[in-house]
């Protein structure tokens, strides 16, 4: 059984994939049970993610379902091997919500991440100073005693970006870049960080200019993820002050895929974005008594 006696993000994703392939093959759970020499009840629990599928069971089922793609087979077998793996994020259960823990697990398995933000820098690109300033702006979001740990958790999430383990595309509306901050040194530090990270081969940053305001209305802030070679969206998340929602329904994902295409097309190119960030950085005064010029 998955750790904690309940489905994990990985076990649910694996189970859903096995169910989809079984149905596509025109087979029912009794066929799968016969192949595994197991009960129909076990197959049902595997497909719901309530029990951990072993790699050998996944191989047998994929043979039965006619799944020949080596990459897809390896991806699903990897999910089986890692369904009960303890992640670093579990050490923070006492101070981060259960939803956030599940989200980090999902994010940690992603191969492609696409983020759209209107007023903030995407979390995976924030400096510690920016994150703390954001938390200070609304003290009700994270208790004061938990803020330093929240910053550490965000930093841990960013390591996969810096190590090139995941492809990140970030589209940010211009006001998130140019709006003055109370501490100009934090603003400068954040822009320098964006300029540095944008040079990584696995990172693409685009600024959506104010002149493309119609495109900015295509969707509220969200983060999309995919988990294989294909960057097509497989999950989308968006958050409120107290909750984080993950959407996986195909019909809903289509709308977010359209939004991403619209935003990418309307945004500055990556090279234009680099030039824009450098220009804004030059305009930020070093005298902290002055307002930031934009």
Automatic annotation (TrEMBL):
It comes from the Bacteria. Coiled coil: none annotated. InterPro entries: Cro/C1-type_HTH (IPR001387), DUF5753 (IPR043917), Lambda_DNA-bd_dom_sf (IPR010982). Gene3D superfamilies: lambda repressor-like DNA-binding domains. PROSITE patterns: HTH_CROC1. It holds the Pfam family HTH_31. This is Helix-turn-helix domain-containing protein. Residues 18-73 form the HTH cro/C1-type domain.
């Amino acid at each position: 059984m998955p750790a904690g006696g309940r489905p994990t993000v990985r076990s649910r994703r694996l189970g859903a994939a096995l169910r989809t392939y079984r149905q596509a093959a025109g087979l029912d759970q009794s066929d799968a049970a016969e192949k595994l020499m197991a009960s129909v009840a076990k197959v049902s629990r595997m497909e719901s993610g309530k029990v951990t599928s072993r790699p050998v069971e996944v191989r047998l089922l994929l043979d039965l379902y006619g799944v020949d793609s080596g990459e897809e087979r390896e991806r699903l077998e990897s999910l089986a091997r890692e369904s009960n793996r303890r992640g670093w994020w579990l050490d923070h259960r006492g101070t981060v919500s259960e939803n956030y823990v599940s989200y980090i697990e999902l994010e940690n398995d992603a191969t492609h991440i696409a983020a759209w933000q209107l007023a903030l820098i995407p979390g995976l690109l924030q400096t510690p100073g920016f994150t703390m300033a954001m938390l200070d702006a609304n003290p009700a979001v994270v208790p004061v005693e938990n803020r330093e740990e929240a910053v550490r958790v965000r930093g841990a999430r960013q390591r996969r970006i810096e190590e090139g383990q995941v492809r990140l595309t970030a589209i940010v509306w211009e006001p998130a870049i140019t709006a003055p901050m109370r501490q100009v040194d934090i603003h400068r530090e954040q822009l320098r960080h964006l300029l540095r990270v944008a040079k990584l081969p696995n990172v693409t940053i685009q600024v959506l200019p104010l002149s493309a305001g119609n495109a900015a209305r295509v969707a509220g802030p969200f983060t999309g993820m995919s988990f294989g070679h294909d960057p097509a969206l497989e999950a989308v998340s968006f958050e409120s002050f107290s909750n984080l929602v993950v959407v996986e329904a195909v019909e809903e994902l289509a709308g977010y895929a359209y939004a991403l295409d619209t935003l990418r097309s309307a945004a500055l190119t990556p090279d234009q974005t680099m030039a824009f960030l450098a220009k804004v950085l030059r305009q930020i005064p070093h005298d902290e008594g002055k307002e930031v010029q934009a």
